Each structure stands twice: as structure tokens, then as C-alpha cells.
Amino acid sequence: MSVERPLWRALTAFRVLALCYAIARYCHTCGKYAHPLGGWLYLGALALWTLATLRRTGSALRCTKGFLLAELAVALTGILLTDALDTHARVVAGDNTLPSIWTAGAVLAFAIKGGWRWAAGASAVIGVSNVVERGALTGGNVHSIVLLFFVSTGIGYVVEVARGSEAALARALRVDAATRERERLARDIHDSVLQVLAMVQRRGGEIGGEAAELGRLAGEQEAALRALVRGAGAPGVAVAAAGGHGGDPAGGLATGPVNAPGGASDPDHGPQGPRDLRELIGRHAGPKVTVAAPADPVPLEPRTAAEVAAAVGAALDNVTRHAGPGARAWILVEDEPDAVLVSVRDDGPGIPAGRLADAAAEGRLGVAQSIRGRLRDLGGTAEVVSVPGQGTEVELRVPRRPGAHDAVRRHDRRERTS
């Protein structure tokens, strides 16, 4: 919500209250005026104007320059009419003008609409009209003029600062949204194109001949694409990943491009109801991958479940890539009241010290985007703990949406009764 909106609402309320005050004060002092009927006519017109233009001061869009000038003209008319309708003695003594504090509302409208410069100009006009009405510059009107000037310009300055802050915040949000979209695209590229290119390069080198040349070209394209992704602003730490989430025919870990379970490439995904994370992660189970999960469903929102499962697939890719085809992996799913924890542990050689930083410099996205980036976008965390010679453990933690347990139970009951 714009910070200006409360100010416009406050100005609308101020105009109405100031009108009531001006009428009440005139009721008390009208007997002292030389021409009281003229004062009543002006206050009647002021009341009609104020009530008819209530919506005008509801927003900056409706409070146009023409309206501001008309509002100022109404205030000036009341101030100058006071000298003609009141007695000379009361005017010289410094008695209130007909519009009284309603005049301040006109100046404040200038301040909120145009900032401190507009406020200063409107205050100067009102100040001059007060001096003309009394015929001299007295201590009383100097005090009122200075007070109105400082209050209105102060509010105008605050409005300008608030507008600048809002604009800066809007720019920051746009940059953040663009960065997140680039990171999402980088994850998709990593989980598909880069892994295919890496696989073509590896297999081409193994086959030799013309396939080796094809593998070399694929390697060059992979390096160029990684540099492009890195230059697009994908931050973080990464290690290379090649392979997919499903088991291969030999019962090893992943060997093909990753397609996030429950995502766009998953035909089993449905938008209705929460997803059981056990089902998605259970697809990774095989002779070399052990999955341990609770007996009860682990419900998550469809997108959240798909992203967590994709992060698990990326972690298994890293096991295949860096721990070797003979490595074993263990996946543990823990269902806590406020969060879901998934741990992926392997018995590989671990990650050498400094390897993650080197991978980040090379633009590799396995950990930075496919794992950490996914969990960060879900409001969760991903921790990587590796001890050389003792394997690596990736711990994923994603907060649970309140009421998800009850929702999945209702969903299961509907399926059983249908």
C-alpha cells in the first residue's frame, strides 16, 4: 500500500473536522460580526464545497492541479471576506478568519500532491492574504504564518522522501524478481541442457572417432552456456552434476537428465490437493539408493513437493558424478510439525576443501541453484556437510504450510470413498 494513501485519508477527515470547527466557532461569535448573514452564506458555500469534493482528496489522481487552485481560491475568498463582514476592531485585534483552520487543509493538499515546494508556495499565498486582511504584519499572524509554513513544508518533504523510497523499493523488487527468474531458468538449464551436453561430451570421448568430435563440440557449448548463465547473475556455490533422478537399468544412481518430479515434465502431476513427498522421493529408490520415510503421508503443496524431489534428484546426480557409479546413497525423510527434513547421504570420498568455491567460479549450478536455489525460493534451507574420506550429506529443510496434514487426510479419505 502506498504511504500516501493514509495521508490523503487523513486530509479528507481534516477538511470535514475543520469545517465543523469553523461553523461551530462562527455560531459562537456571529453576533459580533457587522454583517453576520454574509458569514453564514460563505460558510454554507464552504460546507457545500467541502462535502461535494470529499472524493477529490481521496487520492493523488483525483486531486488535480485545477482542484488545488480552486481549493486555494475558496480559502482566499473566506480570508478576504472576513475584513468586509467583521468589525474593524475585531479584525485588527487578530480574531479568526471565516474559514479558520480549514485554510490549512488547502495548503496540506498542495504539500501531499506536490511536495515541499508546492507547500511553500501555497503557504506564502495564504500568509500574504492574512496580512492583507489585517492590514498589517502583527505578531499573531506572523506566528500563524510561520507555523503553517513549517508544518506544510515538513509534510511535503516527508512525502517526497516516501515517494523516493517507494520508487527505490519498487526497483529493488523488480531486480529481485528478475534475479529469481534468471535463477529458475538457470536451474532448468542445468537440469536439462547442461547435463545432456556433459553426457554427450563424456560418451563421445569414450566412443572415439567422429563421436569424439561431437563430444568436443558439446563440451565447448556446455562451457559457453555455463559462462552465459554465470554472467546472467546466478550467484552461489555449485558443483557439477550430470545424470537424472531415476535409477538406471543396472540399478545404479541417476544417469539421465533431471526432470523434476511433479513438474511440467511429470505426467502424474495434478494441481488438486497436496502431494505425498514419500511417493515422489520413493522413485529414487534402487539397489544403490535406500529411502527411509515415515509410515504416514508427508503432505506438501504440489510445487513444494516437486521442487524438494528435484533437489533430491540433483543431490543424487552429484553422488553419481563425484562419488562414482559404485557409490551408495541413503535418503531419510523426517516429518516435523512445522517443517519437512530430507537428508541425502553418500559413502563417497567427500568434497575436497575449496572445490565448491572453484565450482562457483566455473559457473556450475548443481548445488547453487538446483539444490540451494530451489530451497531458498521455497523459504527453506539446504546445508551441505562433507568430510573428506567420509562422504557428503545434503540436508534439505522446507517449512510446512499450516493445515497441510489435515488437507492430505481429507484428500485420502475422498480417494478411498470414491
Salient structural properties:
418 residues, alpha+beta, Heat Shock Protein 90, two-stranded antiparallel sheet, 9% strand, DUF5931 domain-containing protein, transferase
Briefly characterize the structure.
The protein is α+β, with helices and mostly antiparallel strands. It has 13 helices and seven strands.
Looking at how many chains there are and whether they match, the oligomeric state comes to single chain
Q: Report, as a whole number of angstroms, the end-to-end distance.
A: 45 Å
Strand content: 5-15%
Structural class: alpha+beta
How many helices? 13
Main β-sheet, in a few words? 5 strands, mixed
CATH superfamily of the largest domain: Histidine kinase-like ATPase, C-terminal domain
Strand arrangement, major sheet: 2-4-5-7-6
* CATH class annotation of the largest domain: Alpha Beta
Please tell me the CATH architecture of the largest domain by its name.
2-Layer Sandwich
H-E string: HHHHHHHHEHEEHEEHHEEH
Q: Please bin the fraction of helical residues.
A: 55-70%
Poorly predicted regions are 232-271
Could you please say which CATH topology of the largest domain applies here? Heat Shock Protein 90
According to DSSP, the number of beta strands is 7
State Rg.
Answer: 36 Å
